[in-house]
Write a structure and sequence with these properties.
- By secondary structure, this protein is an alpha+beta fold.
- Helices cover 35% and strands 15% of the residues.
- Strands 1, 2, 3, 4 and 5 form a five-stranded antiparallel beta sheet that branches.
- The protein starts with 10 loop residues before the first helix and ends with a helix.
Amino acid sequence: MASRNLKDLVPSVQLKIEEFLALCAKDGIEILVYCTKRTYAEQDGLYEIGRKLPGKIVTNARGGYSWHNFGRAVDFVPIVSGKPQWSNDVLYRRCGILAESIGLEWAGRWTGSLKETAHLQYREGRSLEQERKEHERNH
């Protein structure tokens, strides 16, 4: 099962996400981070949804092509009165703006076939190829 633990993130990413959570709290927005790091296999499983498995497509990234695989991304949902606000675009936009203000990339701005309002990442100028090579060296 994919991690929800901020400690599974790269330390610099963990700090950025903690800063994001603090900004949201200051703005009165409660946030649940529901995914941090995923294995390649978990990512491949998500990739199959809407393709080989029933459901709506949730990602365009196979294993090794998601920043989640390298501890550089999170998925989150705003919470209001204890309930997740999965389709509250206004609230996600507020969160996205806060995230961008501290240098996080918000996938709600992505253009193309899949906009992911719940996704934040912090690449620090690194490429997926660099991350995959480092991952292969360490595993």
